[in-house]
Specification:
The strands form seven sheets. Strands 6, 7, 8, 9 and 10 form a five-stranded antiparallel sheet that branches. It is globular and about 85 Å long. 36% of the residues are buried. By secondary structure, the chain is mostly beta strands. Helix content is 10%, strand content 50%.
Length: 392
């Protein structure tokens, strides 16, 4: 009897070891390739068109309000910071700076604010040379988009005083001059996108409206109305063939994905998301893959030590009679596939919450930034580089 028990126990141990080895060596569709620590909060991420560089805008909380932000570049092939970091002390960046590479990868555009004057700072990537494109009066720059040939830059801006207003302008990049501007009939612009052939410019505004302009003469071609209960348009992009648009709206605790064609507007999915109370008016917590087949987004993850610590802190603050808001749940990144309409992966959670995600142009890599607090109490962000391999 004892021998049989020992033999059975040995079999269980061998099976457990075998399963463990298989689990460690099994083919993985998503693999963590690099992890970088950054002091402060990463507010935006962008890949260079060739996929060789990753740029991040970082706000140094430890330096206090009004501190200049920094732009840091990492080499994807070498998995390290290139040593090129751009700082400016004579201005502060827009509330949440936009960063975007030109289609040829030679320029990195950043939105900045200097008083009530909006500007686009062009950083020449090879040597760090800086050029400034004045936008005019602007409290904040809401969206920007390069034309596919890189010759033009569309900019949406907001002016707070004396009366809130939204402005749209088109600029020639090389000569750095304004080609066209419009302020009438625009409200609450939230996103811009050029079509892949550069012939059309899509403008999301008034929460649920999308206007399509001819990019050459700025003639209004058509207006698309989303359902009234769709929520606020967060982002839009054309599919690679330009036949349709993928639009993401946010309302309550959900993200809704829409497919827009000339003929109709169709809802593809409703996904759990962070409440608008805890995101900015221009979030970067979701991104489509280049082929438009996968949506990476920050999904609430109300579990783990960080979540319980926040709840305890909230209860203590309430007990002391101090004003407090409900705790924001931690988040993790989920990948949703359009063709199968299902979640295909959830990436391990790290830090308090996801602040930015971005796909590389070839769809091979996904970069994510999460915010947390180091052991010494200083704010710190973690940037993860994930490699995605197609599943058979």
């Amino acid at each position: 009897m004892r021998r049989a028990w020992r033999n059975g126990f040995a079999v269980v141990v061998i099976l457990a070891l075998g399963i463990g080895v298989w689990w460690l060596l099994r083919p993985k569709s998503i693999v963590l390739r690099a992890r970088w620590q950054v002091d402060g909060e990463v507010t935006n991420l962008a890949f260079a068109p060739k996929g060789n560089l990753l740029a991040a805008s970082v706000f140094p909380f430890s330096k206090g309000p009004g501190s200049p932000m920094s732009i840091i570049l990492w080499s994807i092939s070498e998995r390290r910071k290139t040593g090129q970091a751009f700082y400016r002390d004579d201005f502060t960046f827009a509330p949440l700076p936009l960063i975007a590479f030109s289609p040829d990868g030679h320029l990195l555009a950043l939105s900045i604010a200097k008083g009530e004057r909006g500007q686009i700072l062009f950083l020449r990537v090879p040597d760090g040379h800086r050029q400034t494109l004045p936008i005019g009066r602007a409290t904040d720059i809401i969206a920007l988009s390069f034309s596919p040939d890189g010759r033009q830059l569309a900019v949406a801006s907001f002016v707070a005083t004396p009366k809130p207003s939204w402005h749209l302008s088109l600029h020639e990049v090389t000569q750095q001059k304004r080609l066209w501007a419009q302020a009438q009939g625009l409200q609450a612009i939230s996103a811009l996108a050029f079509s892949p052939d550069g012939q059309h410019l899509a403008i999301a505004h008034r929460r649920d409206l999308i206007d399509i302009l001819n990019a050459s003469d700025r003639h209004h071609l058509r207006r698309i109305q989303l359902p009234k209960k769709a929520g606020r348009i967060e982002s839009l992009r054309f599919t690679p063939d330009g036949s349709r648009m993928l639009v993401v709206t946010r309302q309550s605790n959900t993200l809704t994905v829409w497919q827009v064609t000339r003929e109709k507007v169709a809802m593809l999915a409703t996904l759990p998301a962070i409440s608008p109370l805890f995101v900015s008016s221009r979030p970067f917590d979701h991104a489509f893959s280049p082929d438009g087949q996968i949506l990476a987004f920050a999904k609430p993850h109300p579990a783990g030590l960080a979540w319980w610590m926040r709840r305890v802190e909230h209860r203590i603050t309430q007990a002391e009679g101090l004003p407090t808001s409900p705790p924001e749940p931690p988040t993790k990144i989920a990948l949703w596939q359009l063709s199968t309409k299902r979640l295909i992966a959830q990436l391990p959670h790290l830090g308090y919450g996801v602040t930015a995600v971005a796909f590389s142009p070839d769809g091979r890599f996904l970069a994510s930034a999460s915010f947390g607090i180091s052991l010494d109490g200083a704010p710190r962000s973690t940037i993860d580089l994930w490699e995605i391999t197609p599943t058979k």
